[in-house]
Write a structure and sequence with these properties.
single chain; alpha+beta; 8-stranded antiparallel barrel; D-amino Acid Aminotransferase, Chain A, domain 1; Dna Ligase, domain 1; 686 residues; Rossmann fold; globular; 27% helix
């Protein structure tokens, strides 16, 4: 077994690999750029080597810099994580030449499967079902339009060397094919150094389901069942689960056997993933094979009890797999929510800054048991569970850390496990509500809203779920009336606790002891709920309208998280004070402004005028920190609704900003190459 391995990556995946290596007694080496000097993975590793400036093209994906770090530290093997050099054939070959083990597949398999055009041809030869498309090189946008018409719209334009949603566009018309071809080429060149594009038929009502495979150097190969990855935005996965709520055992077996056949066809070893698109009739088509560990691998670990990173290390060291296909059972259900530094209230645009508060929920070990009843840890360092559900958070950040514009916006992966899908969803709801993140825009409210969405709860999802259910973007969840009443009851009980604290500080007024009243008006975003609070030594009974609601909890003023039992059900809320004696409460994807007032104060508050927001309709504002790639209009141009105005790059993604209505450009205040902050003015309309 190896004595020391180097992790050629950063963030949460580097931390994840370090945990398993530590469990196995293997020393670790981290690499870091200037931007990651104080990063969590650097602090966790036994050694760390500086490899260059913040841009990945000058540090993390420079093979010579990684090789220098290996020589400096004497590492015997390298785990590439995902992204960066994980699917780079030249990197695997450089390691082989140096006599260093690559904790991944052979270079030949990377070359065969890493190129999506070649991989599709090999899949066809191996008997794997594939999507109709054009696998040849495409010279220019005109040819892309011609091919798209031959295949038939809609089509998907994809980077041949792509992954992670980069360099992918759906086109429904000639105009979109032309525009998407150039945008995909630009993103592919920037992210992978390879701008080749191919086109294939876009399957409508598709589900994205992938099969995890694992193969050793002795001819053994297995599949570890499937992951449902259909909740996506811009082709980037947001929520994953295992198993899929859609597949039946026969389809699962057929997909798994085809995935193993493909792995064997290319002499694959290590962990890999074969991705399929599945239609409403359970017909499935090969998309690509990712020759690396996937971001969403934890849900597979949680339902199988197999530590995939450990297996990758053992395979790279020449050890055989110690289990066969029949040994791999599905136990329980696991869900993963990706925490992104993206602001859902600004159409999910990237957000950067300092994490002024980062408090994930407490991790609780849970996962499958072997038939003997012996505990199988689902995460490095796990201890046997004390309850029916588990919580796992894979992260690469800590409170006070900086979210940089140079790297992927994902900062953590929150996972829950439970015996059933329903219980796993409920565990995720509570875990998301208890996850505190401040200082940056983030998608926690959106993730919470999805967990409550009827389509997700029923399992009736496709890759178009977000586009169909949130066509105008995300403006926050709307809680049903019964849930608002529970929030009102909790807020009234919280206010009473705060008022008692204030009376103890202020003491008595003259000869009269200050008392806390029972009757209050709880106003939630302008909607009023009369509430009467009757407290006892165990909690409060709050009558909201005609409904008596029992509230129990130990919240105290100043605490940022309130955990309650309301009507016998858990209620977890993030709590902030706001002016005027109120609270900002965030729960289940809703961001609520709540005031608790006496009836007289509420009467006076109704007479107060509302503050009007400033009018910014004449300006195109930069919605995120980023770099101006191009300005698509000139001063004096008349623009139409939906017309491209400018393109801003942030976190390796190009974002096209479009006109919201017809207008005339009067002034352009930014230029290509300029770095902008949030709400900087790009151009002004007459």
């Amino acid at each position: 077994m190896f004595r020391k391995i180097l992790i050629a990556n950063r963030g949460e995946i580097a931390c994840r690999v370090i945990k398993t290596a530590r469990k196995m007694g293997i020393a670790t080496v981290a690499v870091y750029s200037d931007a990651d000097r104080d990063a969590l993975h650097v602090r966790m590793a036994d050694e760390a080597v500086h490899i260059g400036p913040p841009p990945a093209a000058q540090s993390y994906i420079v093979i010579d810099r990684i090789m220098d770090a290996i020589r400096q530290t004497g590492a015997e093997a390298v785990h590439p994580g995902y992204g960066f050099l994980s699917e780079n054939r030249k990197f695997a070959e450089a390691l082989e030449k140096e006599g260093v083990a690559f904790i991944g597949p052979p270079a030949s398999a990377i070359e065969a499967m890493g190129d999506k055009i070649t991989s599709k041809k090999i899949a066809q030869e191996a008997g794997v079902s594939t999507v109709p498309g054009y696998m040849g090189l495409i010279a220019d946008a005109d040819e892309a339009v011609k091919i798209s018409n031959e295949i038939g719209y809609p089509v998907m334009l994809k980077a041949s060397a792509g992954g992670g949603g980069k360099g992918m566009r759906i086109a429904w018309s000639d105009e979109e094919a032309r525009e998407g071809f150039q945008a995909s080429k630009n993103e592919a060149a920037a992210s992978f150094g390879d701008d080749r594009i191919f086109i294939e038929k876009f399957v409508t009502q598709p589900r994205h389901i992938e099969i995890q495979v694992l193969a050793d150097q002795h001819g053994n190969a297995v599949y570890l069942h499937e992951r449902e990855c259909s909740i996506q935005r811009r082709n980037q996965k947001v929520i994953e689960e295992a198993p899929s709520p859609f597949l039946d055992p026969e389809t699962r077996r057929a997909m798994g056997e085809q995935a193993v056949a493909l792995a064997k066809a290319v002499g694959y070893t290590s962990a890999g993933t074969v991705e399929f698109i599945v239609d409403a009739n359970k017909s499935f088509y090969f998309l690509e094979m990712n020759t690396r560990l996937q971001v969403e691998h934890p849900v597979t670990e949680l339902i199988t009890g197999i530590d995939l990173v450990e297996q990758m290390i053992r395979v790279a060291a020449g050890e055989p797999l110690l289990f066969a296909q029949d040994d791999l059972k599905i136990t329980g259900w696991a869900i993963e929510s990706r925490l992104y530094a993206e602001d859902p209230y600004r159409n999910f645009l990237p957000s950067i800054g300092r994490l002024t508060r980062y408090r994930p929920p407490v991790e609780v070990a849970a996962g499958p048991l072997e038939e003997t009843g012996r505990w199988v840890p689902a995460h490095p360092g796990d201890t046997p569970p004390h309850g029916p559900v588990g919580v796992r958070n894979d992260t690469g950040v800590s409170e006070g850390g900086e979210i940089s514009m140079f790297y992927d916006p994902m900062i953590a992966k929150l996972c829950t496990w439970a015996p059933s899908r329903r219980e796993a969803i409920e565990a995720m709801r509570q875990a998301l509500d208890g996850f505190e993140v401040e200082g940056i825009g983030h998608n926690l409210p959106f993730l919470s809203a999805v967990m409550d969405h009827p389509r997700f709860v029923s399992g009736d999802i496709t890759t178009a779920f977000i586009a169909e259910e949130y066509p105008e973007g995300f403006a926050g969840a709307e809680l049903p009336d019964d849930e608002l009443e529970r929030v009102a009851a909790a807020a009234a009980a919280m206010h009473r606790v705060a008022e008692i604290r204030r009376t103890r500080i202020s003491g008595t007024l003259g000869n009269h002891e200050r008392k806390v009243g029972d009757d209050w008006i709880v106003t939630i975003d302008g909607r009023e709920f009369p509430a009467r609070v009757r407290a006892d030594q165990h909690g409060s009974t709050v009558t909201v309208g005609e409904r008596a609601i029992r509230v129990e909890g130990d919240w105290l003023p100043g605490q940022s998280l309130g955990r309650f039992e309301v009507s016998g059900e858990p209620l977890v809320m993030k709590v902030d004070k706001i002016a005027g004696g109120g609270f900002r409460l965030r729960v289940r994807g809703a961001d609520l402004r709540v005031h608790v007032r006496s009836p007289r104060a509420a009467e006076l508050a109704r007479l107060m005028p509302e503050k009007q927001a400033p009018d910014t309709s004449k300006f195109l504002l930069c919605p995120m920190p980023g770099l101006v790639v191009r300005i698509s209009v000139s001063e004096g141009d008349e623009v139409q609704e939906g017309q491209a105005l400018a393109t801003v790059e942030a976190m390796k993604m190009e974002n096209t900003l479009r006109a919201e209505r017809k207008g005339v450009v009067s002034r352009i205040l930014a230029e290509p190459g300029q770095s902008l902050k949030v709400d900087d003015v790009i151009l002004e309309f007459a």
